[in-house]
Amino acid sequence: MNVVRWGGAALAAALLVGCAAQPPVPGWRLDLRQAVEQGTLAYLQGHDRVASVHAQRAQQAAAQSAQATALARQALAHCAAQLAALQGQGCAAAAPYLADATAAEQTYAAWLAGWPARPWEGPGRPDAATLPSAARALAQAWPAPPAADLARWLGALDDPLTRLVVGGWLWHAVGLDGAAVAVLVDTASGQGWRRPLAAWLAVQQRLAERAGDTATAALAQRRLDWLLHPAVAPASGPSSAGAAPQPVDSAPR
Q1: Model confidence over 47-67: pLDDT tens digits?
Q2: DSSP classification of residue 223
Q3: I want to staple 115 with a disulfide (CB 3.0 to 4.6 A). Which of 65, 102, 120, 227 is the partner?
């Protein structure tokens, strides 16, 4: 099973690489792919109960194989989504399987935990060559940034989830400027991913306040309010449904 990209649907697709024109895919892999895709989407959208159900399905599907690689990957996919939403680093859920997994899973777990910006104390010796392309670029360039203009570099990454995961790693490792954070806000907003959008809007607000950019800070706060406290349109009562509007001069006062 080759690693194409990590995180959400991309990881699930990686589990099925090479399936075309080959024997039928085992049911557990199909179940795993669907559960990871649906669980990641639910998590990013902020639907915690649904995400939890799919996470359990993914773990159970991977456990049917008793393969450390599959079990580690389904855990790492969820941890990558958490990093995209700035919900911590590392992946404790993958730890029980890493010693028996391959260098790819061990290295990705190390990267999620901050390697090479931080030393890796888990199993295996991280090998940047096994990482997906964006993470590999960061690891191989470290301690220098992968590009002089991180905002442009992030914006050039094709996959929205990859962009947010890498942005989360950079934020914890070296920090980001307002332009790069704006790229991540736009990415989450464009996808309708409520959880990372809230996280990156909060970052944008703090950076703008520190820079004295009151207009950007105020807009970020308004967007957070719209996101977290959406206005609910009043429901039409049965008596008003289908009723013709009254003339202004005869309306009740």
Answers
A1: 999 999 999 999 999 999 999
A2: H
A3: 120
